[in-house]
Amino acid sequence: xxxxxxxxxxxxxxxxxxxxxxxxxxxxxxxxxxxxxxxxxxxxxxxxxxxxxxxxxxxxxxxxxxxxxxxxxxxxxxxxxxxxxxxxxxxxxxxxxxxxxxxxxxxxxxxxxxxxxxxxxxxxxxxxxxxxxxxxxxxxxxxxxxxxxxxxxxxxxxxxxxxxxxxxxxxxxxx
Length: 175
Hints:
This protein has two domains: 75 residues, no CATH class; 68 residues. Helices cover 55% and strands 0% of the residues. The N terminus is likely disordered. Keywords: Coiled coil.
């Protein structure tokens, strides 16, 4: 562990707990584009709120919303970046994304269900893999034992063949 002096001016070393959701939120909020408030977004939305992205798949919807408002998002996510002035948005003359708090919560809830289902699917597949691996290990052990027994039998056959040569050559027949 680093001493305080290594961090200069008596500061303590960074806490590993700083790398958390709070740090990510702080980073996102500090990187909001300056025109964020020009979109007029509200938590509940308004009756004249644009809905041009509402039919999009959640991945594109979230990606587009974030990319428009957060500078440097491509550094924070592995999802390919979509430009707010893409052909799709320019053709629709709708380059301002829109979202509401309940909409985001609904997407998160749906996503959590999908994540849970996918985790169950992975667990089931892993269980199948474990069964197959166990069967493979048993088969491999059985094969190894059979190969060892075959080597012993082949060695025994060789020894008996040698004994037969000796017997045929050196033993006197009974008359």
